[in-house]
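Blackboard transcription, Thursday session:
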Amino acid sequence: MASGDGSTLESCLQLLNSDTAHPELFLSVQDALARDFKSLTKTLYDLHKAHEPADCKGSPLEQLVIENFDEEQIWQELELQNDALLTHFEQAVEQAVTDDTITFFKDTEEEEEEEEEEEDVDNSEIANSLEEESAEEDDDDKDKEEEFKQRLKPSASNEDDDFSGEDSDLDFDVDKFEEKNKQKQSAAKLSKSRSHRTQSEVDDRFFKLSEMEAFLDDMDRREGNESLEGDIDYFQNLPSDDDEELSFDKPVALTKQKKKKSSRDMKYKDFFASVDAEPEKMDPESNDDYEGEDDDNELEEEEEEEDEDDMNEEDFDMNEDDTARNALRKVTFDLPDDDDNDSEGEDVEDILGGKAKNMPKPESKSSFEKRQEKMAQKIEELETAALSEKPWQLTGEVSAQTRPENSMLEEDIAFDQASRMAPAITEETTLQLEDIIKQRIKDQVWDDVVRKEKPKEEVFEYKKRLTLDHEKSKLSLAEVYEQEYIKQTQEKKEEEENPAHVEIQKLMDTLFLKLDALSNFHFTPKPHIPEVKVVSNLPSITMEEVAPVNASDATLLAPEEIKEKNKAGDILGDTEKTTTDKKRERRKKKKLKRLKIQEREKRQKVKEVMKGGGDKTKKSKAEVEQALKKLTKGGKAKILTNDGMDKALRSSQAFFSQLQDRVKSQIKGSKDQTAKKKKKQKEISVSKLKL
Amino acid sequence: MDSVSVTQAEVSAAAEDCEGNTDSFEKVTSKRSHKRKRDAAEVDMRPEESAAAAKRPQFPALSGAQLTGGSVEMRRVPVPAHRYTPLKENWMKIFTPIVEHLQLQVRFNLQTRNVEIKTCRETSDIGALTRAADFVKAFVLGFQVEDALALIRLDELFLETFDVTDVKPLKGDHLSRAIGRIAGKGGKTKFTIENVTKTRIVLADTKVHILGSFQNIKMARTAICNLILGSPPSKVYGNIRAVASRAAERF
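(Written on the board underneath:)
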């Protein structure tokens, strides 16, 4: 039977391959190929129906009827079969998943094949499980790709009219098979190349960011899918500690992993590697070996985790642990060089106990020896420190030159400040300040500066304050002192005036003032507030009195205000002046004059000095005139002028001839009238002769 | 120690109780002869205080007769001739406060031309005698009765006398001029000083008498001395005004 089936299948395969060898043919409608495909579908269906187990009931059709049937009708026949079997297959898959005896191994492809063939290809469940299995290993993209591939394939085949259901079945079958292999391979590759996945900064031996992301995405999806899955068994025996996985979904959880332990059975060695192991390399083969296991682990882990934040890392740690566990099962400490015999490392080893096998010791040392070694080490260190040069921090007073550059920045220094520090401005202080400001603004309480004015006291005002009473005081001394005493004692109780009273008083004042103005007898004008007022010198009656009763020739301004009085006193006329007054006036006049002259002379000197560069002998015309005037003033000198002289005297000949004539006349005169004209003789003055 | 300040009210109250009830007046007034006794009393009181502070011994005021030990004290104030008539005219005004308020006996001895003041049994205040004598003396010097009365009413008033030639040795016209300066035209300057410094001044020839409290006497004296020394009255006015305003501000 099986061989017959196998041969049938082979022949079908061959036919299919030959038909699809030239895909370009499908651009046009190929009726022959279509008929082939139909017959293929029928063959497969019949084959399948023959092998159908008795318990699962498919469609009542034993054979696929294709003669004279439309594609649609064929499809419906197939659908009939598929729907019937769907539920059956679901159950089967569930059973298979929860079945502890079944284990999935990557290498045993035949097993999987069989499983596959048992569960028919159309199950989306298997696709899901495959997803789950590979989710851990695949990246999101790859996962989705494969998903899509799986899904697209049937959809593609559905859409295409040329392909019948048989085709799709076939395709699905084959493709599924191929994909499964691919997945396995890719998973293997991925597991191999785990380290080649997208590296991120936070990755280390335990944590892979990409894995975490993949896990999270998967969980999101699962949450979406399985949101209806309900009851969480709070009391089930957890397989491990809190840090490890919690199984929320009991049916899905695979707790019977042989490597899984309950939380109580976990030991140190499950978490931490022995100290000497090198955890760097992850053996890909060993990974492959454990992949099936890993799949289950991952299944569990994926399904169980709900909260992501805290658990994720631990999850991943656990995942890592799980994956690494089988290969390595070790976490190592970041030990310094083994040569150092670091105390920490040693202590850890001591704690670990027997696991510290790989410490480079020639022979195992007793604890005492180890202690001694430590002590010796410490002593050595202290000695070297004591003998060596001290660091600059401990060398007393340090200046900037003696210490390295910017070394003070790294020091935490404590020092006392004598003065008060400026207030540190933090956000709170700023906010407080702003609150105060806002409140002030609301209350309109400003800190405006009030302009200070110097209280200028006029002498006049000051004098008025202490009025000098030139009369005999009306009060006796006793009364004066009495009043003072009373004022002193009663200073404290100052009567607080009723504001109403004040107002009443004011009104009354104004009223009475007006009344007094009308009745002249008791009218006293209000006290004059000193202000600048222009007073014109008009008769006072027009300005002061409201109701003029009598005329007055009094003027507003006093004569002193019109013209200021002389310091000397009254102005005296010429006849009124006494001798002393006259003399005084004269003296005053002379003094003023003298001052004027002195001033003028000073100015002249200054001018001469300014012009001092020029010829000193050259005098200006004005100066010459001045000099002449001065000389002739006193009568000491006389200026010879041309008065009475003829123009003819300009020439010397004329002059001498004139002289001759004159002398002759004189002689004549003397001869004739000696007695008479003697007196009348003109003197020959020098000025006349102009010598 | 209680300060003794006799106001009109107190005086009148004292006058009412002139006759007898000195017990109601439970205050120790005189300072002089009381001292030793009071000290003793204080000493006595201190140990008592510790025992019971509330139980203070109350001593009635001693009358003048008790204080003096029964003897009578007398003061004599001579009256010059030119004050004789004014004394006669103002006798009632002089007489009344002395007798009624101070509980003293007063008479004018015509033969000796003295005003005699005497304590009696009714005199409660021993210091009254001095005050009465001062009062009469002030009047005799030339002050008005009302001004002199202030001496009785107020305790802190004093009388100061000095000569013009004490300030500066002036003779003849200068002296007259100095006195004239002090007086001023119609007494203007004198009145001004009196008003500003709250004193009373009497110019008697070359003697100057000033009545007032201690500070005021000083102010007036300074002003008068400045006038004697030759500063014009306006300047003196300015000075005393300044001083007086400062003094007034202070108190």
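Lecturer's comment: The radius of gyration of chain B is 22 Å.
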